[in-house]
Design brief:
Elements (H helix, E strand, L loop, with lengths): L3 H11 L4 H8 L3 H8 L9 H15 L3 H9 L2 H4 L5 H48 L16 H13 L1
Length: 162
């Protein structure tokens, strides 16, 4: 029994049409037509698109689109040892999900690294401003001028009362 792709290719060749002519008249991308005729469903994102392109292409060729779409849903691919369309799509989605998760992890690490970098820059800026712009104060330790701590406290009390 012929596959869907073989049926589509035979119908196109019977009408003496090239893939370029089909592309021009149906507005279906040339790569998708080739994928349909070779039963390479990995070129499509979802099973919905496969069915839509088969429907459009088969109607253009004058074939019964319902029977071709029904063939997709049958288990003939599993009986021949080939991978079923839904399995291909599931695997493709799984790989895309894993790839997206890896990208998110990479982005998360980059965001954290950037945040740490920004914090370090801010701390360096604060330190630089405190050293260069703020007036320098000279502090005297008690007893540097020969005063006792009691004498320093008396001075402070007099200064406060004034």
């Amino acid at each position: 029994m012929a596959t869907i792709g073989q049926k589509l290719r035979r119908a196109r060749e019977a009408k003496h049409l090239t893939i370029d002519e089909v592309t021009e008249q149906t507005k279906i991308n040339q790569n998708f037509i080739i994928a349909l005729e070779t039963d390479d469903y990995q070129a499509f994102k979802e099973e919905f698109y496969i069915k839509q392109y088969i429907r459009t292409y088969s109607r253009f060729l004058g074939l019964n689109s319902r029977t071709l779409i029904a063939d997709i849903d049958e288990d003939e691919y599993e009986e021949k040892g080939e991978i079923h369309v839904s399995q291909l799509l599931f695997e493709q989605k799984k790989r895309a999900t894993e790839r997206t998760q890896r990208q998110f992890k990479t982005m998360d690490v980059l965001q954290k690294t950037f945040a740490i970098f920004v914090i370090i820059i801010i701390l360096i800026a604060i330190w630089f401003v405190s050293i260069t712009l703020l007036p320098k104060r000279e502090f005297q330790r008690p007893g540097e001028l020969g005063e006792t701590s009691y004498q320093i406290q008396e001075k402070n009390v007099k200064n406060l009362s004034i």
